[in-house]
Amino acid sequence: MFKYRRISLLWAAILSLTVLLAACGDSTATIAPVAATTAASAATTAASAATTAAGATTAAAAGATAAGGPANPAAIAALCEAAKKEGKFTWYTVWFTQEIINDIGTAFTATCPGIKVEGVRNVAATIYQKLTQEMQAGIKNVDVYASTDIGQLIELKEGGKLQAYPIAGKEVLYEEFRNIDPENFYHVGSFVPIIIAYNTQKLKAEDAPKSWQELITDKYKDKITTGSGAASGQVGTWALSMQQKYGWDAYFNKFNSLNPKLGRSINDTVTDLVAGERSVGISPLGQILTGKGKGNPIDAVFPSDGTVIVVNTIGILKDAPNPNAAKLFMNFLMSKEYAEICAKYFEQPIRPDVTVKGGKTYKEMAGYSPKTADIRKDLPDVIKKWKTLFGA
Description:
44% of the residues lie in helices and 15% in strands. By secondary structure, it is of the alpha/beta class.
């Protein structure tokens, strides 16, 4: 939790000037484009160079370095005071459940009292459509957008809809998550392991599938449940992963022949398993561990052919009505307190110094995740093929 203290205006000005001068003289303030993004992104990079520089300067003044170094407590305190004048910020997100979102909002407000958090959650396709429709209509309600589909953040960046902000404190994260966009338009705020889940009253542990390949064998016909690859960013990423591993036709024609029950959100899987409507599912790990901890007859299998890792990204909208509160919130996502809230709900922390009870660390999962460029290029086609094959 950030600790704040009052400082004189003169001292604040001196500190801010010192940080600004340091940023201007730091060779890391100009960062190369993301190698994994498309040619369109490279073109946008040139057009947004001035925005990037301005964002880096603003972030430095807020206590961050261009490399994501430790926050300056005095500058963070000044950012908090500016955020209090805004009074709130709005967060559109695909992550977590509403309960977790509310808990995160309460914890964040405690770090800087006086800021109301409005967290709105939905599946990736629905909430992104809502966001883009509002932007087209000139409605500026949203400060921060977070998705399980990194392609959406890349698209927002390419369209000039995000502002660059180098978050303070990224050195505490797993190294793989520190620099997903070196230009700092979007960042990793969480990640979700996608595993095989099963109802322990319907299947014995030895009868549960041990791999994604085993899942599509005939003995699981009429037993499988998951969400929609066309609506859920997590299911879409899983489907892309299976396409890369085994080929679309070979895997999904067989998967379809098993008559899977397809909801909309991947979280629908947990409801089906707990109710006993289906006995095995493709599910986020956190939801299964949460349900198991409540005494529900469900458990998780880490597939031998790789736990699918969905990297969840977040960015500040260029026209955010409450930019100071948004920046303060982005810094909060690096905190141990935020990581501990995630772990409390069995969601995976992005810091290695916080672990989930009964789970595995990121390094222990033998994870598989499509490359950013592949998600951007191939996920839209996967969504189209999913709709054609499954109808939803």
